[in-house]
C-alpha cells in the first residue's frame, strides 16, 4: 500500500503503457490515412488523396451507410425493449417465471456469436413461410442485432434503476401524479444517462459485428465490417484507413457531446434537488 506513495512514477508509467496499448494503434491508423503510398504500412509522404478515393468508392460508402442504418435502428429498438425488460425485472418484484425471464434476456451475454447467428438464420428460414420474414437481408440482421444487444442495455438500465431512490417517485405519486406521469417526469430523466450509455453501447456492438452479420447478410446488405474483412485478405487499403479515421472522429464527437449533455443534465438535477430541499427545509 505504501508503494504508490513512495513511487508515484510507477503508477503513471503503468497507466501510460496501458493507454498506449489501447490507443496507439488507432492513432497510427489515423496517421497512415494521410499516407501518399498505396501500401498502408509504408510512409512516403503526406497526402489526402485517399479521402477523395474513398468518396468515389460507392461500394464502401454503401456498406458504411448500411451499417450505420442498421446500428441506429438496432440501438433504438434495444433501448426500448431493454428498458421495458429492466422495469419488469426491477420493479415488478418476484413474479412467476422471473428467473427464467432474466436468464433468457441476459443469455446473449455469454452465448457465442456463432450460435446466435446460426440460430437466428435457422429461425428466420423456418418462420419465413409463415410470416413472410426474410431469412437474409437488413431486416434479418436487425432482428439478430436487437436480440444480441438487448442484454447489454437491460443490464445497464437495471443497475441504474436499482440505485434509484424510490422516495422520489413515491413523493410524486403522493402529490397526485399517476404512474405514467411519474415515469416520464421523474424516473426517465434520472435514468437518461443509462439510456444514452445503453444506446451508444448497442450502436457500437451492432456497428462492429462481423460474425452474426456474416450469417444473415445478402447480396445487397453487406455491412461495413464484412466489407473490410473481405478486403483485408487482399491487403489493407489506405481508403479503409481514411474511413476508419472519419468514423473515429465522428464517434468521438458524439461521445463528447453525449457526455456534455449528461453532465449538464446531472448538474441541473442536482441543483433542483438542492433547491427543493432548501424550500422544504
TrEMBL record:
- Localization per Swiss-Prot or TrEMBL: Cell membrane
Name the GO cellular-component terms: plasma membrane
Q: Note the CDD domains from the entry.
A: TM_PBP2
Q: Lyase among the record's keywords?
A: no
* InterPro entries in the cross-refs: Bact_Polyamine_Transport (IPR051789), MetI-like (IPR000515), MetI-like_sf (IPR035906)
Annotated GO biological process: transmembrane transport
User: Which PROSITE patterns does the entry link to?
Assistant: ABC_TM1
Pfam (any one): BPD_transp_1
Q: Where are the transmembrane segments?
A: 12-34, 70-93, 139-161, 182-202, 240-261
Instruction: Indicate yes or no for the key word Thylakoid.
Output: no
Q: Where is the ABC transmembrane type-1 domain?
A: 64-258
Would you say which domain of life the source belongs to? Bacteria
Topology versus the membrane: Multi-pass membrane protein
Q: Which UniProt keywords apply?
A: Cell membrane, Membrane, Transmembrane, Transmembrane helix, Transport
What family does the entry list?
Answer: Belongs to the binding-protein-dependent transport system permease family. CysTW subfamily.
**Know the name of this protein?**
ABC transporter permease subunit
Give the organism the record lists: Stenotrophomonas koreensis
